[in-house]
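4-hydroxythreonine-4-phosphate dehydrogenase
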Amino acid sequence: MTLPVALSCGEPAGIGPEIALRAWDVLSDSCPFFWIGDPRHLPAGIPFREIDAPGDAAAVSATAMPVLRHPFAAPTVPGQPDPANAAGVISAIERAVALVAAGEASAVCTAPIHKKALIDGAGFAYPGHTEFLAALAGVERVVMMLAGEQLRTVPATIHIPLSRVPEELTPALLRETIAITEAGLRARFGIASPRIAVAGLNPHAGEGGKMGREELDWIAPLIAEMAAQGFGVFGPLPADTMFHPAARARYDAAVCMYHDQALIPIKTLEFDSGVNVTLGLPFVRTSPDHGTAFDIAGKGLASPASLIAALRMARDMGAR
């Protein structure tokens, strides 16, 4: 029996509830999933049915979106996050993880959260979903990958100021990032011999030391050492020439040095269909690569494309 994907509701005042229903409309026959949240937060007039257990999702999915009821403290108004619901958002994520750990779901897919509401309402102590999921799993180091049909990118450093990147980017961090990426490509994407391109930190990958010495001093030696150990890794490459079609054909994933270096190319190529994947967890986790979009919540304008891609990817990874 194919296990369903657990979809946590995310911030109920954002676009999560409406795109979940639109995703179900597309995936009802091909990708069974169940939504964990408060039915009061779903748009009116759209078919959903409450289920008692994840195992009921497949049978229900043909005619209605399966919903595992998860009561929240308050109703919601689209575009107006309520800190009173913060604890519900957090516990819905925890429940999704617990169901996967118990073997009742194949993977976790998370709808976007609003960190300020979680901090204001529940003292949320994590920078985002990724770090919270790592804590739930008891894993010290995980990797964020942005994945699509045309490109997969991994930022070695994530949500820190650009001024801190050179001090945070250490040989140990880069080595771990490459190793976790390589293992994830094998286990989650089924790539037997992953090819990983590594971007330089400085313009033109330092241009022989004229624009920075990190590439010469330790990035290139680290890559050479890992290649000698059997990793299919190469670089450092100038970031401005590694994302055109011919360059992308040479690798399965690009490890980049900081947030924007990784996210700008994939959001340019696959803005509506990119997927956020967390590698290094003992379970599969995907998420749409966008935020809560309060400005259009409840207006029927939000595209479900990224969530559809995230659910499909979670299904495929879970099966693998």
